[in-house]
Amino acid sequence: MNRPCHAGQRQRRLPVAGILGASAALAAGLFGAVVTAVARRVVIPVPTRPLDARVLSAAPRQRTITLAATPDTLLPGRYGLWVPGSERYHRLGPVLERTTQTVTRELIEDDEVSRIVPGPASFSGWYFRHPAELGLEFADVMIETELGDAPAWRFPAPEPSADAPWAILVHGRGVQRPEVLRAVPVLHAAGYECLVVSYRNDGEAPASADGRYGLGATEWRDVDAALAYAAEHGAPRVVLMGWSMGGAIVLQTAQRSIHDSIVDGVILDSPVVDWRSVLRFQAKASRIPPLVRDTAMWLIGSRAGRLLTGLRHPIDLDRLDRVAHAGELHHPVLILHSDDDGFVPSDASHALAEARPDLVTLVTFSVARHTKLWNFAPERWSDAISEWLARLNETARSAT
């Protein structure tokens, strides 16, 4: 026989059910907020440089600076440092002294050492900040893109002629054109006319309507416009070169451009070849749970997620995976990548080289970290490019 439920028992059960329901709703809301934040962090440009270094002291007379030791600040070679409050970009020379916690480096041609104060700073692979520092002739030009005129620097070939090949240089995520100036001398010495370009949402070129990165899925159109500019100015052959996300951009350009017939080859420095592998790596480094990571990637690629990410169009991460589409590759590619990159893992670069040994040449480094290969080993980096270009140009001459 069923016993009637007393009113007191019902009252006790109803609050418990309400609490459980509210807790579930709160948990779902928090999860959604975290996922949205992760997804937005991937696609929203950040206007400030990461403060990933710390200045401990500077010695004006000795022209030295002491930093907290990190994997980057301990690197051999030449680098740059942005210090808040200082008007200059400070060039760093070799390591002079190191301990377990500090590193002292030379300051190169720096007259503003006295303005450097202890505190946070941004360590950079940039070495040249302005094209005039290269000592080469150059001109400021504008590339007509679908969003408006985008600024570029044009360096004439050492021996200008109708036969001189061109190189279009594309910087990575969160930086601007000076990042790629390191490559101009080696390309110029090989006889190339160089075009250093900007692209949407990089703080120099016109912004897109949504103000979001497309991770290469939209930016390639601006590089395609640079290809059109090169073609209009008589470029017979063009090499595309990209750093980090710029690598993803030039890979899309080489695949999708209507001007791909003049693309002679592709050079990639620390490139994003597959975004999923990069996002998984960075999520693990940031201790983001796999469920949050995978849901954020789904959000980026979903039409339903556009209201949360702010993307005008979802990003097709499958299409950006060049390993999965290795069969579509039809240009020679040189990849330069450090196996301890620390930001963009080299796994996809290795996978692409293994999938297309007929077209892809992979030169690996160690210790050099992300986009700092030139800084760490400039001769080896430059020699790898020079030798690859020599083979590329020999092939082009044989074909004519």
From TrEMBL:
Residues 168-284 form the AB hydrolase-1 domain. Coiled coil: none annotated. GO terms for molecular function: catalytic activity. InterPro entries: AB_hydrolase_1, AB_hydrolase_fold, DNA-binding_regulatory. Pfam families: Abhydrolase_1 (PF00561). This is AB hydrolase-1 domain-containing protein.
